[in-house]
Amino acid sequence: YLSKMATTVPKLLKFAAKGQTGSLPSVGFGTATLKEEIGKKAVLDALKAGYRHIDTALLYGNQIPVGQAIKESGIPREEIWITSKIAFFPPEAQGCWMFNEHNVKGNEAACIDTCLEQLGVDYVDLLLVHNFSTSKEEYKASSFPHFFELFSKFKGDAIPVTSAHGDNLREMIMSNYRQAVKENVKPQEAKALRQKTWSAMEEIKASGKAKFIGVSNCPHEIITEMKGYANVMPAMNQLELHPTFSSPALQKVAAENGVLLTGYGTGCSVQIEENEVIAGIAKKMQLSPVQVVILWTVQSGIVAIPRSKTPEHIQENLEVISKGRLSDEDMAAINALNRDHPYYWDHETFALTAT
Asked: Are 130 and 57 in contact (CB under 8 A)?
């Protein structure tokens, strides 16, 4: 399949956390929502384009076609970095959005075995805790941003952000959900479950089933908390990260602890925002807005994992890193767009129970 190899090779970004040191390609291929034959073809196209970093998760329901694509590519396993994620749901989360009983905290050992079986590999390079919700209340509150702009743009059945009266419905609802967490979730119990989950991840690393371990959708307060109980600190924190949600405080804490960041939401943020600053830079550099945000991400020292099922876009998203750099002025202009506004996960909720 890989008769013609691309020449673009992403630079490596390094992590140096307590107990974990290594590096991985700065641009990976995201696979969320890419399933069955569409997903398989997209991964094959990505590998043909030159990607050597594939990001998946037990939640995505696509690890079998991802694994098939990796095998059929003919590229040696050791040349491809595979990231997966587990432990998405808190215990007793029946009835919650997207619930799957095979992806629950407390079952980490079974989760990684399922991942390896589905992918058809002996190990993953990086395994992440998909999120740190420890209760139904935390899960409902933290995941609620999904139902506004994202659903409005891509599903058509969203909750309006503002009411006919001009009230900020998003903030009103989020405030109520956070209050439920404050009233019903005991911080010490939440911390105990986070510690238990991370201990299970450390055991997976020791077993060799994952070379490195990390976290996802994790606020800086929990990274700081982990220093009190982690024998091995996270190599990576993968989270929503784009110009309007760039989490400067988290970037600082991650850097201080040697934790590398991976940012997702690149394309979705561009489509939702249609930002004039990004569009202006794109026009000036003869790039797409998505390519500009990928450049901004990588130049910020953060791994980018753009997703596409279109071969041309798959190629473009990788090749952009060899087409130049954003100026200091353009980087500053994009940094100034941050307004701490997530489209996926509410980090404030997770931070409520950090101790």
From this structure: yes
Query: Residue 70 corresponds to which tokens in the numbers above?
Result: 């990796």
**CA neighbours within 13 Å on the CB side: how many for 100?**
13
Q: How many whole angstroms separate alpha carbon 327 and alpha carbon 229?
A: 41
Checking DSSP bridges between strand 210-216 and strand 124-129, what pairing results, if any?
parallel
Cβ–Cβ under 8 Å, residues 296 and 334: yes
- Among 283, 348, 296, which Cα is nearest to 326's? 296
Closest CA to 150 of 268, 4, 323, 25: 268
Measured CA to CA, the distance from residue 70 to residue 44 in angstroms comes to 7
What's the CA angle centered on 347, arms 345 and 351, to 5 degrees?
Answer: 145
221 close to 354: Cβ distance less than 8 angstroms: yes
Q: pLDDT tens digit string along 286-295?
A: 999 999 999 9
Reading the block at residue 135, the tokens are 């209760």
Residue 151 class from Cβ within 10 Å (0-12 exposed, 13-18 middle, 19+ buried)? middle
Provide the phi-psi class of 203: left if phi over 0, else alpha when psi is between -120 and 50, else beta: alpha
pLDDT digits (tens, 9 = 90+) for 242-299: 999 999 999 999 999 999 999 999 888 888 888 999 999 999 999 999 999 999 999 9
What pTM value is reported for the model? 0.95
Q: Is residue 5 classed exposed, middle or buried when 0-12, 13-18 and 19+ CB atoms within 10 A define those classes? A: exposed
Task: Quote the strand ranges of 171-316, DSSP E.
Answer: 210-216, 236-240, 260-264, 303-304
For residues 105 and 89, give the distance between their C-alpha atoms in angstroms, rounded to a whole number. 6
